[in-house]
Design brief:
elongated; alpha+beta; 10 helices; 447 residues; four-stranded antiparallel β-sheet
Amino acid sequence: MASVQAVPERWVLAEPGATDIPLDRYWLMLDDPLVEEFVTRAQSENLDIAQAVTRLRAARAGLRQARADRVPTINGSGGAQRDIGDLASDDVLLSLGVDAAWEVDLFGRIDGSINAARSDLQAAGYSLGDLERVIVAQVASQVVTARSLAAQLAIARETLAIQDDNLQIARWRNQAGLVNSLDVEQARTQRAQTAASIPQLESNLAAVANATSTLIGEPPGRVYRAVTQAPRAVPAPPADVALTAPADMLRRRPDVSAAEARLAADLDRVGVARTQLYPLARLSGSIGTSATDVGSLFDIVTGNIFASLSQLIFDGGRVRGRIEGAEAVADGSLAAWRQSILVALEEVESSSVDLRTNAARVTALAEASDGAQNAALLARSQYQAGLIDFQRLLVVESQLLGTRNALVNAEAGRALAFISLARAMGGGWSVPEGAGLEQLAARERSE
C-alpha cells in the first residue's frame, strides 16, 4: 500500500470565486439571527460535544500516565508486630520501609508509549474540533431547512385561501347554469389536495425544529416557536466563494489531522511492540528500619539495590503476534488517513458545484415564479369572466404552486450548499483548550 496520498495543485470542477468567507464564523454570512443564536448555543451546550470533551480529558490523563513511566515508582510501608503466646515478649516491633523500582528505557519502549499517548491526545483534540465542525453545520442547515418548510407552509396556506375563492366562484357559476358540476368537483379536488399538504408540512417543520432543539441541548418547544412566530425568508449566501488551495484546505480539516494523529499513534505502538523483543533493564531497591520503640526507630537503617536484565527467549510467538497486530492496525490507520483526504477533496468539489448550480436555479426559478404569478392573475380574471374553463385555470395555478415551491427549495439548496462548502473547507471549529494542539493554535494566530 502506498504511504502517501497525492493531492492536486488546483481544483478540477470548482472555480475560485471572489468572496472570501471567515471560516471560523462563516454562518454569520447567512445573516439569520436564529442561525447565529442556535450555533452559539450548540457550541456550548451540545451533548455530543460534551461527550467528546470527556474523551479529550481521558486522552490527557492517558498521556500523564505514560509520562509517569519515566520516573521511579516509590512505595512506602509501615507496620507494628507483637508476638503472642506464653513465651512471647511484650515489646511491639515497629517497622518502616521504602521500596523503589525504575525501568531503564534502553530501547525506547517508554518514549514510544509517550509519543503514542501524545498522538492520541492530538487525535482526541482534532476529533473534538471535527465534531464541532459537523454540529455547527448541522444546526445551520436545520435552521435553513426550517425556514424553507415555513415558507412552503405559508405558500400552501396562501394557495388554499385562493382555492377557497375559486371553489366559491365555481359554485356560483354552476348555480347560475354557466358551467356544469365538473368545475365544482375539480375545484374541490384541487383545494383538498392543497389542504392535505399543510399537515405534512407542519409535521416536517416540527420534526426539524425538535431536532434542532436536541442539537442545542434543550427540550423541544422554543425553537419551533422561534421559527413559526418570527418567519423570515430563506437565507441568501454569497453565490461565489473563494477557494483556498487543496493543500491549505487539508491542513485546516480537523478530520484529516485526527486521522494523521491516529496513524502516528499506531506507528508508535508498532515500535513499542517491537521493544518486547529486546532486553528489559530494571533497577530496584529498598530501605527499611525496625525497633521496639519510636525513639530508636532510625538507629539502624538497612537497604539494598538490585539491577536486573531480562531477555525474552521463547513465548510461542506471542510477541510476534502483537507486532503483526500492531502493524495491521497501523496499515488500517494509513488507509483511513488517505481516505479522509479523498473525502475532503470530494466534499469541496461537490459542494462548490452545488453552490454554483443552485444559484443558477434560483435565478431561473425566480423568473419562472414571476411569470407564473402573472399568468395566474390573468387566468383567474379570465375564468371569472367566463373566457376560459376551469381546467385551464387549474393548470396555471398548479404551475404557480410548483414554481413557488421549487424556488424556495432552490434557495434552501443554495444556502445548504454554502454551509456544506464552508464545512468542507474546514470551517466551524476552533482549537480545543489543552488538546495538545498548541502548535496549530500558534500557526492559526499567525495567519
